[in-house]
Write a structure and sequence with these properties.
This protein is of the alpha/beta class. Helix content is about 40%, strand content about 25%. The longest helix is centred in the middle third of the chain and has 14 residues, at about 110-120. One of its GO terms (molecular function) is ATP binding. It holds the Pfam family ABC_tran.
Length: about 240
């Protein structure tokens, strides 16, 4: 079974086509990076896959569940770590984790146990009693991802997980993300090409709502006759940049 699959997935807003007939599949346990300039259609695609926006045409499935006809089932097996760090600033690190666990229906004892697990996995135990607002940007991003994982989703969408972080914090988060590979299906959106190349099993490049390339970094470079992923990305998105 694929973790995520789309066939002819399309979204139109009046005269504008934001996503144009996307067809692709992401294997269960695969880490997939979706690249594109601002306005390329990444956010709209993710919203459709999460059941937040209804497609104009085509279909998509998450772990075999149709995102339109089985929206509740889809939402129950996925989670999202948004670009904006989604933590409650006045709650402690542990309280943030326990709150999310309780929202997902865990008992008080289960929520405490799951929170302790996430604290350990994400190296947050020493800061468990600190209010989230006292954490550094990198630590807050770490907590945000831990909160997204506390429900043990089958599919996780990571939207710009390292945006605005310094090099050291970014590398530390890369290490944590790498450790998730193979355990769950991850869809990563990022503007950092080196991040996609370092973390993803495969990469999709969107431009103008269309999938311009799909494969490993090496396969995309070979298909475009370029020497690097950056050169390939620039070549594939040149039309959009000059539109």
């Amino acid at each position: 079974m694929n973790g995520v699959e789309a066939s002819g997935l399309t979204k139109r807003y009046k005269e504008r086509t934001a996503v144009d007939a996307l067809s692709f599949a992401i294997g269960e346990g695969e880490m997939f990076a979706l690249l594109g300039q601002n306005g390329a259609g990444k956010t709209t695609t993710i919203k459709m896959l999460c059941g937040l926006v209804r497609p104009t045409a085509g279909e998509a499935r998450v772990m075999g569940h149709d995102v339109v006809r089985e929206t509740a089932a889809v939402k129950a097996i996925l989670n999202v770590s948004p670009q904006e760090t989604a933590v409650a600033a006045k709650l402690t690190v542990r309280e943030n984790l326990e709150l999310i666990a309780r929202i997902y229906g865990l008992s008080r004892a289960e929520a405490k146990a799951r929170a302790e697990e996430m604290l350990r996995v994400f190296a947050l135990t020493e800061r468990a009693g600190d209010r989230a607002k006292k954490l550094s940007g990198g630590m807050q991003r770490r907590l945000s991802i831990a909160m997204a994982l506390i429900s043990r989703p089958a599919v996780l969408f990571l939207d710009e997980p390292t945006l605005g972080l310094d090099v050291r914090a970014r590398r530390a988060l890369w290490k944590l993300i790498e450790e998730l590979k193979g355990r769950i299906t991850i869809v990563l959106t990022t503007h950092y090409l080196e991040e996609a190349e370092a973390l993803a099993d495969r990469i999709g490049i969107l431009s103008g709502g269309r999938m311009k390339a799909l494969g490993t970094a090496a396969e995309i470079e070979a298909a475009t006759g370029t020497a690097s992923l950056e050169e390939a990305f620039l070549a594939l998105t040149e039309e959009e940049a000059t539109a």
